[in-house]
Amino acid sequence: MVDREKARSAPERETAPRARAAGRPAHHREAPEIRRKSIIQATMRSIAKYGFAGTTIGNICAEAQVSRGLINHHFGTKENLLQQAYKELCDEWSFQGRDMLLETHRDPEERLRAMIRVNFGPAIFKQEHLGIWIGFWSVIGKSPALRKLNRELYKQDRETYARTFEELAAQRGQKVDSRRASIALSALLDGLWLHWSLDPKGYTPEEAEAACLDLVERSFR
Q1: What is the pLDDT of residues 66-76, one digit of tens each?
Q2: Residues 33 and 58 both lie in one domain
Q3: Distance of alpha carbon 24 from alpha carbon 17, whole angstroms
Q4: In a 10 Å sphere around its CB, with 0-12 CB exposed, 13-18 middle and 19+ buried, how is residue 171 labelled?
Q5: Is the same domain home to 126 and 164?
Q6: Are residue 193 and residue 88 in the same domain, yes or no?
Q7: Contact present, 209 and 116 (Cβ < 8 Å)
Q8: pTM
Q9: Which of 63, 194, 83, 187 is nearest to 139 (CA)?
Q10: Calpha distance 132→94 (Å, rounded)
Q11: Separation CA 213–CA 85 (nearest Å)
């Protein structure tokens, strides 16, 4: 007869004691996608705490309260886990900072203001969140996979800004170099994020937002 304990996969065997320790029935199993999401979120928290270089599998395991075997089971390698974490971060930003606003703001001026405002809102403009981005930025130049994801994200953002600048110029009956304006706005947003993460007392979120709105107005002629 097959020993059922031995027949179970390593991740399942390792999860059962944790379930019992947490007071859950031993047979309780989280859906794979929920477990994957939990590990990815733990990876982001580790990067915020320890930086990219300091984020080890051990730190991620401790943060997610899972074993190395479970991480290997879901992601295979640390590199793949980090890539999935950055993709998750990019996807979340695309939804919060662009896609949702495109659906809810038809007026181009209000849409552009909303896209700037969300960059400095309390859900995004905080040390932990910026620490995750900066952790990934520090290694993007050395990782072709991360660089590809980053390039796609910024290309979509710049294109969205450029279209919105063009719509706003048409509405106002003015001219604008939409490509140059979108490049400048994207760079200013990143620069403000970076400087604030290094010195949170340097300026307020409201001042950062106002600086971006000033740039928008100077883009028109």
Answers
A1: 888 888 888 98
A2: yes
A3: 10
A4: exposed
A5: yes
A6: yes
A7: yes
A8: 0.78
A9: 83
A10: 16
A11: 31
